[in-house]
Amino acid sequence: MPIATVNPATGETLRTFEALGQGEIERRLALAVTAFGEHRTTAFGRRAELLGRAADLLDADREDIARTMTLEMGKPITAARAEAAKCAKAMRWYAQHAEELLADEHPAPADVKDSGATRASVRYRPIGAVLAVMPWNFPLWQVVRFAAPALMAGNVGLLKHASNVPQTALYLEDLFRRAGYPEGCFQTLLVGSGAVEAILRDSRVAAATLTGSEPAGRSVAAIAGDEVKKTVMELGGSDPFVVMASADVESAARTAVKARVQNNGQSCIAAKRFIVQADVYDTFVEHFTAGMRDLTVGDPMEESTDVGPLSTEQGRLDLEELVDDAVRLRATLRCGGRRPEKFDQGWYYEPTVLSDITPEMRIHQEEAFGPVATVYRVAGLDEAVALANDTPFGLSSNVWTRDDAEVERFARDIEAGGVFFNGMTASHPALPFGGAKRSGYGRELSGHGMREFCNITTVWHGA
Ligand code: NAP
Asked: Residue 433 falls within a domain, yes or no?
């Protein structure tokens, strides 16, 4: 894929970028090592000061960077502003909490004695340069949720961003530089995915985190495995949104619309499969379909737009294939299922609801990365749990119920990294984020995320 800004609302190529050459990659890897040598021993107070300054700059830049994101990947401008604000908030959260989250741990005195020590502790030390391979869908947030904890832990970052968001990628490097980070603490490597293997195999790169599709994750995890380097994988999702008969069905339907179409439907944690108990199925489907039909599809730069274009032409083709396959196999198309007629350019797709889904349809097992929902009818709790788990993915899940026994059952049995009751999945700096099954492994955010890229060191003292 060329490294370029292509406006998804028009299909027009606005700017192209040359990938970094070998010499420049080499220079930047060397710089990362030098920067780590200094940054790893800076005091938490100094790290917090730098990250706080980055947050202030980001707040000041909010309108500009929001427009850049919308231009590059088509998210509604209102969502782009919210994303920038969320990033600044997460930076401040880590600036405030990192020291406490990485404080030395002291085992119980009896255990220390039992180990033969006079004193023992556990220390969280940084590990070095972490390569972050990132996707375009939340082009600021995906990077910040890696960078803020990594920099606070004393690591340095190398960003290989998606090829369709180069201006956002360059903005990030500039942001950390302007905040006062020493040169090399956070660098953007404008390279295509073909360059990742050599960078990851380089001994100056200690570990990698990847957020993206399963094929990309499999490739990077395999290379890192071969090099025995730590990885965190945040991959695809096909999250269930279960509505039990005890739920507030209208409220569930309203939230379901948001949960499905956030970010033009291109969110890993978007609810994608709607599993509804038979008693409330008709009411839910009626409200949900009406909500999806009422959305304003339009120019993402317009304040009133709910759903903009898909980010790439290929993304729309992939989505169309999934819908066409389901319709061919006799799914019921309740709304959408086509490109809106009012646009003669751009990669728009109408919010779509499909029901009567059967296991042989591709959409039953694959991730629909766009505003397309599948709805299933289930008789009761056991069938709801089984269907929720009938997917290769396990990122997060949403369950609507007012029954305590049902809450307990879903919290115990859903195979996913999160269970959100009576609401929709959202990330927060204080809560761990990540998946099970083929949605990946490891966690981001909270102390768990920050400690993924630490050398957890036992410090033991004899006499
Ligand atoms: P993608 O094609 O996998 O791209 C993600 C990143 O990986 C890009 O930087 C891409 O670079 C790079 N890449 C692609 N193939 C690679 C390879 N073989 N080796 C090394 N790097 C490679 O994914 P996407 O289409 O941008 O993003 C959509 C996917 O991300 C969806 O499946 C979504 O669910 C998932 N996602 C997951 C999370 C989560 O937290 N779990 C969050 C957001 C998105 P190029 O752009 O240069 O190809």
From this structure: no
135 lines ligand 1 (CB under 6 A): yes
Range of the domain at 452: 4-235+439-461
**206 and 264 share one domain:** no
Task: Tell me how far the alpha carbon of residue 158 lies from the centroid of ligand 1, in angstroms.
Answer: 16
- The reply to whether 205 and 346 lie within a common domain is no
Residue 109 counted as domain residue: yes
Nearest Cα neighbor of 208 from 441, 20, 456 is 441
Give the distance (Å) from ligand 1 centre to CA of residue 133. Answer: 7
Quick: pLDDT tens for 403-437. 999 999 999 999 999 999 999 999 999 999 999 99
How far apart (Å, rounded) are the C-alpha atoms in residues 146 and 211? 10
Tell me the residue type at 405.
A
Distance 211 CA to ligand 1 centre (A): 6
Hey, what are 77's tokens?
A: 């401008």
pLDDT of residue 212: 98
Confidence of residue 296 (pLDDT cuts 50, 70, 90): very high
Tell whether ligand 1 has an atom less than 6 A from the beta carbon of residue 234. Answer: yes
> What positions carry a catalytic annotation?
234, 268
CATH at residue 310: 3.40.309.10
**Contact call for residues 315 and 369 (beta carbons, < 8 A):** yes
Contact 371, 288 (CB under 8 A): no
Contact 134, 212 (CB under 8 A): yes
Instruction: Say if 77 falls within a structural domain.
Output: yes
Report the DSSP beta bridge partners of residue 132: 159, 209
Q: Tell me how far apart the alpha carbons of residues 81 and 99 are, in angstroms, rounded to a whole number.
A: 29
Q: Which residues pair with 233 in a beta bridge?
A: 210, 441
Angle (nearest 5°) at CA 156 between 154 and 159: 145
CATH of the domain at 16: 3.40.605.10
The mean per-residue pLDDT over the stretch 264-283 comes to 98
The mean pLDDT value of the chain amounts to 98
Q: Are residues 98 and 179 in the same domain?
A: yes
- pLDDT tens for 72-88 read 999 999 999 999 999 99
What integer is the mean pLDDT of 327-356?
97
Tell me which of 6, 137, 262, 452 to substitute to probe ligand 1's pocket, judged by most ligand atoms within 8 Å of the beta carbon. 137
- Count of CB atoms situated within 10 Å of the CB of 169: 26
Task: Say whether both 208 and 255 belong to one domain.
Answer: no
